[in-house]
């Protein structure tokens, strides 16, 4: 991840320009390590996202909608007490470090002016946010507490003086010149990009590689020139927000990355770029942690069902020997005069074969000839009955496999709210036991929330992200002549267009969303069926989310995340 000192400088400059003198009107904490501030500035409301997520720590303006918990955490309540209604006096970066200090002026309960600092440290798993008194620099609280047992260098606890992370004894690149660069670099040592990262603050390996690439042969003249060229833009606050997709990975930067060969997408602001890059990533990380036990359970059940199919098919093969048992019983009955008690076998003429070959029949020496014949008839009857049972079990197991495959797909594109509904469904289906903490039941009249999308021509369509939502959308929410979509023979979401005669553009865009929220989201030319709701039926006793349909038309689309973002509404039903 390349949220380095240069990125911090760029976002600090942008936020300072946009939010300076803004008033904080609302604060909420949607997740354990994330905050969202609503700030009124320059006649507009802005949403500022601050995250101390171990994998996706960041700060930027966002247009994404985040949930507001009904019970705010203690840290959030403290921030509301001290910061809501406050005015942002300054937003500053500490040197070239990944530390931002937001100074906020507000009145206390007595009406006296108080100044607080919200300090944001973007440092991987050590990322943190804390509110401190601007005069005493004493910590009021932090989103993560760090005790002396966790860090011998500093504690981050209420009442403790704020101490910055340990100095790395690196040079500030903004303040350096050609001579300063040459003093820090040993050309005989090699690995010049690593040397740049180790000697200068605020540089990520990505930027260091760009410096080396631009310098060509990287000698004492070319390397300082390349480095200073990049630093010149940074000093002058000239940035080029962009995302690059290269070698199957996505990168983001505010510096033109000429060493990466791939598709480049430019953005008008740093926040817009960060909002796009991190879209869904942090949420999927939370879902992965939240749904780890579910995914493990589902994949285990899926593999068990696959093995069960193999065993049942072997049993069916054995059961198909029923006619062979019947034939041997009848041939023995017709040839009882040839068999004596104690014979281990007998050879008879097979009258059922036109060539009438000799057939050897194994016998139980302890049984009479008649009992041996009856034993074959019993095997015949048992095998005959088991064929129907085994075939029925095979069909049920295939249904289980299809269902599990579908739920696995749903967990991969689920939000935290969707995961809770999937967990509830698995409890109802008997795959999971209800936890004691889950004893509180949802109200019967509480409806699943559906994601809303709007086509380019203005028509709304709705998406079910799990089976509870799919059942509600298709069987209760949708109207008889509205258009229903689903990927053809591929596990995925149900989609309903709120129109009886949608235009072709809406159908293609709704099909694109259906393909994106399916097992084929990484594929191209995905087949998607659409038909009227009246032609979609849910068989009695079928698994959640399962339907049959007819009179469909098929279109082929390629899922695209940018299209999904463009069409997605900020609302849910």
From TrEMBL:
CC per GO annotation: RQC complex
Primary role: Key component of the ribosome quality control system (RQC), a ribosome-associated complex that mediates the extraction of incompletely synthesized nascent chains from stalled ribosomes and their subsequent degradation. RqcH recruits Ala-charged tRNA, and with RqcP directs the elongation of stalled nascent chains on 50S ribosomal subunits, leading to non-templated C-terminal alanine extensions (Ala tail). The Ala tail promotes nascent chain degradation. May add between 1 and at least 8 Ala residues. Binds to stalled 50S ribosomal subunits.
Family the UniProt entry places it in: Belongs to the NEMF family.
Gene Ontology terms describing biological process: rescue of stalled ribosome
Keywords annotated in UniProt: Coiled coil, Protein biosynthesis, RNA-binding, rRNA-binding, tRNA-binding
Subunit structure: Associates with stalled 50S ribosomal subunits. Binds to RqcP.
Domain of life of the organism encoding this protein: Bacteria
UniProt GO molecular function: ribosomal large subunit binding; rRNA binding; tRNA binding
Cross-referenced Pfam families: NFACT-R_1 (PF05670), NFACT_N (PF05833)
Protein name: Rqc2 homolog RqcH
Coiled coil: 295-322
Domain NFACT RNA-binding: 453-541
Gene3D superfamilies: 1.10.8.50, fibrinogen binding protein from staphylococcus aureus domain like, ibrinogen binding protein from staphylococcus aureus domain
């Amino acid at each position: 991840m390349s949220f380095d000192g240069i990125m911090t400088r760029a976002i600090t400059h942008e936020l300072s320009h946009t939010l300076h003198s803004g008033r904080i009107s609302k604060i909420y904490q949607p997740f354990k390590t994330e905050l969202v501030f609503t700030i009124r500035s320059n006649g507009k409301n802005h949403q500022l996202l601050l995250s101390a997520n171990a994998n996706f720590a960041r700060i930027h303006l966002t247009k994404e909608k985040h949930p507001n918990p009904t019970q705010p955490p203690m840290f959030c309540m403290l921030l509301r007490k001290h910061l809501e209604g406050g005015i942002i006096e300054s937003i500053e970066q500490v040197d070239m470090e990944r530390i931002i200090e937001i100074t906020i002026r507000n009145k206390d309960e007595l009406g006296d002016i108080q100044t607080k600092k919200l300090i944001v440290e973007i440092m991987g798993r050590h990322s943190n946010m804390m509110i401190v008194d601007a005069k005493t620099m004493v910590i009021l609280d932090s989103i993560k507490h760090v005790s002396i047992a966790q860090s011998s260098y500093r504690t981050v606890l209420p009442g403790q003086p704020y101490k910055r992370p340990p100095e790395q004894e690196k040079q500030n690149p903004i303040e350096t010149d050609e001579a300063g660069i040459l003093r820090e670099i040993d050309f005989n040592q090699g690995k010049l990009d690593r040397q740049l990262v180790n000697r200068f603050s605020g540089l990520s390996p990505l930027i260091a590689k760009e410096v080396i690439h631009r310098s060509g042969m990287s000698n004492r003249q070319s390397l300082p020139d390349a480095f200073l060229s990049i630093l010149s833009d940074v000093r002058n606050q000239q940035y080029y927000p962009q995302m690059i997709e290269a070698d199957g990975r996505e990168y983001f930067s505010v510096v033109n990355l000429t060493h990466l060969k791939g598709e480049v997408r430019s953005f008008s602001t740093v926040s817009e770029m960060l909002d796009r890059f991190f879209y869904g990533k942090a949420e999927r990380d939370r879902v992965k942690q939240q749904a780890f036990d579910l995914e493990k359970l589902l994949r285990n059940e899926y593999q068990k069902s696959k093995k069960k199919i193999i065993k049942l098919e072997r049993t069916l093969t054995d059961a198909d020997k029923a006619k062979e048992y019947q034939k041997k019983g009848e041939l023995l009955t017709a040839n009882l005069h040839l068999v004596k008690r104690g014979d281990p076998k007998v050879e008879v003429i097979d009258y059922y074969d036109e060539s009438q070959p000799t057939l050897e029949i194994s016998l139980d020496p302890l049984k009479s000839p008649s009992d041996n014949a009856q034993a074959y008839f019993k095997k015949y009857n048992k095998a005959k009955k088991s064929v129907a049972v085994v075939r029925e079990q095979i069909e049920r197991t295939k249904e289980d496999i299809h269902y599990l495959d579908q739920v696995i797909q749903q967990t991969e594109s689920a939000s935290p709210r969707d995961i809770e509904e999937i967990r509830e469904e698995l409890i109802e289906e008997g795959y999971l036991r209800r936890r004691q903490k889950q004893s509180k039941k949802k109200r019967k009249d509480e409806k699943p929330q559906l994601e809303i999308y709007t086509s380019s021509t203005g028509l709304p369509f709705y998406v079910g992200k799990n089976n509870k939502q799919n059942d509600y959308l298709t069987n209760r929410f949708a109207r008889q002549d509205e258009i229903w979509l689903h990927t053809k023979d591929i596990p995925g979401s149900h989609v309903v267009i709120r129109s009886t005669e949608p235009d072709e553009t809406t159908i293609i865009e709704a099909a694109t969303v259906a393909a994106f929220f399916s097992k084929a989201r990484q594929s191209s030319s995905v087949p998607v069926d659409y038909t009227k709701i009246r032609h979609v039926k849910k068989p009695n006793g079928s698994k959640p989310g399962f339907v049959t349909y007819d009179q469909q038309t098929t279109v082929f689309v390629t899922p695209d995340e940018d299209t999904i973002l463009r069409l997605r509404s900020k609302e849910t039903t």
